[in-house]
Specification:
CATH class of the largest domain in chain A: Alpha Beta
Order of helices and strands of chain A: EEEHEEHHE
Strand content of chain A: 25-35%
Number of domains of chain A: 2
Structural class of chain A: alpha+beta
Distance between the termini of chain A: 41 Å
Helix content of chain A: 25-40%
CATH architecture of the largest domain in chain A: 2-Layer Sandwich
Largest sheet of chain A: 3 strands, antiparallel
Oligomer: homodimer
Shape of chain A: globular
Strand order of the largest sheet of chain A: 1-2-3
Number of helices of chain A: 3
CATH topology of the largest domain in chain A: GMP Synthetase, Chain A, domain 3
Chain lengths: ~140, ~140
């Protein structure tokens, strides 16, 4: 896979991939940015969570469960010193569904976290502690 | 740091962070997506490169070198089996500058790759082989 990036602002970056989709990065003025887009390390955490969220959605659908709403709140802690790697990440998945049971949500998350999600696996392999919880709202 | 994600399409995800900036993810129809945005694992690679690109830009500016253009081409290889982690990444930085020397570019990349870039450090710590080269165009 090949991706391309261009610095097209003080710190603003436009990244493109093979389908032509664009992703934008910037940073805060304190480090020279103009705060027009999310910072790379923030997006890295979002990408990791998004990777797992797609697994969970796909697995729930395979189980023929209805996804009325699926949300995640993700908390990441980084090292104080350079390189400021993520040291702890907590993933909170919230599913609103009229027919899924807690075990369906839990199993989907476990399958993603332990088998499918390449991004989560990389975070863990790097030494980051990754924890998670699934909250089911049956309605 | 806290980020939030919402599944707001078949596989489309909108991620937000504390400044309100949004990042979008989707995937190809083969796995249930609608191909409206880059996939999470692609964005993860872009975020890693973007993190390093900002370091390089900041270091070159500290050295008072002119950045006429700064681009990156990034190639990532992933494992065949789940979890499909990145196993090899090559980062090609291209700088157009009338006053930077090759050693300025090389030193900037090395400082990013060996000291500052948290995302690159996580890739390496996970077991991914990360290589790089800097191409300088003096004009």
């Amino acid at each position: 896979m090949i991706v391309n990036l261009v610095l097209d602002g003080n710190m603003h970056i436009t990244a493109t991939e093979s389908n032509g989709h664009k992703t934008y990065f910037d940073t805060v003025p304190e480090v020279g940015g103009e705060n027009t887009a999310a910072a790379p390390m923030v997006v890295m955490l979002q990408a990791m969570a998004g990777c797992s969220m797609m697994d969970v959605a796909a697995i729930l659908r395979k189980k023929r469960k209805t996804i009325t709403e699926l949300k995640m709140e993700v908390e990441g802690l980084r090292a104080d010193k350079h390189p400021k790697v993520y040291t702890k990440v907590h993933l909170k998945y919230t599913l609103v569904s009229p027919d899924a049971e807690q075990k369906d949500l839990d199993r989907s998350i476990e399958l993603s976290q332990n088998t499918y999600c390449g991004a989560s696996a990389m975070f863990k392999q790097s030494g980051c502690e990754v924890t998670y919880e699934g909250i089911l709202i049956n309605q």
